[in-house]
Structures are given as structure tokens and as C-alpha cells.
Amino acid sequence: MKIGVLALQGAVAEHIRSINLAGAEGVPIKKVEQLDDMDGLIIPGGESTTIGKLMRKYEFMDAIRQFSAEGKPIFGTCAGLIVLAERIQGDEEAHLKLMDITVARNAFGRQRESFETDLPVKGIEEPVRAVFIRAPLILEVGAGVEVLSTYKDEIVTARQGHLLAASYHPELTDDYRLHQYFVEMVRSRSMAPQQL
Ligand code: GLN
């Protein structure tokens, strides 16, 4: 099972390491053609405006929308979550507009630009070690979106069917259980009878 990591900007190598630990094969994705061989895709953290620009430049927008339309799972972390969102607070134009959520960028304020915490996540037994770096928040979710975790009453992990989003960086610790959760999403999808 192959899981691509969009390699235009951001924490790519760390995601690949975590995917490999979770029992799938992580592949850095630099060209749209590579998506054809992938069963799932991770959009990493970094800077969402830059990632959005590079995605447009290298024609990833329609290719990733098509990937999603085929039901293939996508996991956005931090800036990757912003890129997945249908709406960004303020007048900023959204990017992929795949997930029915409204996000606020850099939502934790200056004093708390970066911090780590143990975060309970629905579907994972023990809390997950989460690193927040100039992290976004999910302000609103649509009816089809399940909230998987909150931090101080703010939504920081959510799932909409085959789409998973986290405000933080799960790849910057040794705890790869969120990657394992995503690998399971990819595995159960590829084993679903209607896909055979
Ligand atoms: N603040 C960044 C943005 O708005 C996201 C930060 C991150 O990915 N660590 O794009």
C-alpha cells in the first residue's frame, strides 16, 4: 500500500518515516503523474499560501480533487488542513475546498506560537503527542464532518469520510498512531467490496 506525501514544501521526510513505521510505503510526490500509483495522500504542514501557490503552479489542484473524487483518502496536517478546507476565515481565497470546514489560520496567538500536548483523539486509545506550530483551528464543521478531538474547546482533529485533518504536526514525534489511523482508513477503503 502506497501513501504519497505532497513534496512541494514542508515536513515531508518526517511524514514518510511515520507512514513507514505505520506499515505502509511513504512516497514523496513531486509530479501529478505519481498520484496514479497512490492509495492515499498526505498534505504536510508548512505555509499554506506557499503550498497553495505551488499546487496551482504544478497543476495539483484538479489532480488532487480527482484523487478525492475517486474516494482515495487524504490527510492534511497543519497547513495541509488549511489547504483542504472549503472556507478560510477572513477574505482569503480557499484552496482545494474539499472538506466542509471553516478554518482560522495562526489561531493560537503570539505567546503560544508553538507548544506540545497529549491530545485525546476519538478512535485512538491513549492520547496522541501533538506538536502545534503557528497552528490553525477549525471554527465550524458541516453536518458530514466528525470532530475527533478538541484542545481547550477548539476543534483540532476532524474527519469527513475519506478526509482527515489535524491542526498540529503528528509527524514530529515518535508517536505514529495517527498515521496508523490514516493507514487503516486507506486499507479499509482499498478492501471495500465495491472497489474490487
Ligand atoms: N501558519 C501556517 C499557515 O497558515 C501553518 C503552520 C504549519 O503548518 N505549521 O499556513
UniProtKB/TrEMBL annotation:
The biological processes this protein is annotated with in GO are: L-glutamine catabolic process; pyridoxal phosphate biosynthetic process; pyridoxine metabolic process
Instruction: Write out the residues that bind L-glutamine.
Output: G46, E47, S48, R105, I133, R134
Which gene is this protein's source? pdxT
Question: What keywords would UniProt list here?
Answer: Glutamine amidotransferase, Hydrolase, Lyase, Pyridoxal phosphate, Transferase
Q: What are the annotated GO cellular component locations?
A: cytosol; glutaminase complex
Q: Give the active-site positions.
A: C78 (nucleophile), H169 (charge relay system), E171 (charge relay system)
Q: What is its EC number?
A: 4.3.3.6, 3.5.1.2
Q: Which pathway does the record list?
A: Cofactor biosynthesis; pyridoxal 5'-phosphate biosynthesis
| Oligomer status and interactors | In the presence of PdxS, forms a dodecamer of heterodimers. Only shows activity in the heterodimer.
Q: Would you identify the family this protein belongs to, as annotated?
A: Belongs to the glutaminase PdxT/SNO family.
Concerning InterPro entries, the annotation shows: Class_I_gatase-like, PdxT/SNO, PdxT/SNO_CS
One Pfam family hit: SNO
Q: Which SUPFAM superfamilies match?
A: Class I glutamine amidotransferase-like
Q: What GO annotations for molecular function exist for this entry? A: glutaminase activity; pyridoxal 5'-phosphate synthase (glutamine hydrolysing) activity; transferase activity
According to its UniProt entry, the function of this protein is described as: Catalyzes the hydrolysis of glutamine to glutamate and ammonia as part of the biosynthesis of pyridoxal 5'-phosphate. The resulting ammonia molecule is channeled to the active site of PdxS.
> What sections of the sequence does the record tag as coiled-coil?
none
Q: What is this protein called?
A: Pyridoxal 5'-phosphate synthase subunit PdxT
Which reaction is catalysed here? aldehydo-D-ribose 5-phosphate + D-glyceraldehyde 3-phosphate + L-glutamine = pyridoxal 5'-phosphate + L-glutamate + phosphate + 3 H2O + H(+); L-glutamine + H2O = L-glutamate + NH4(+)
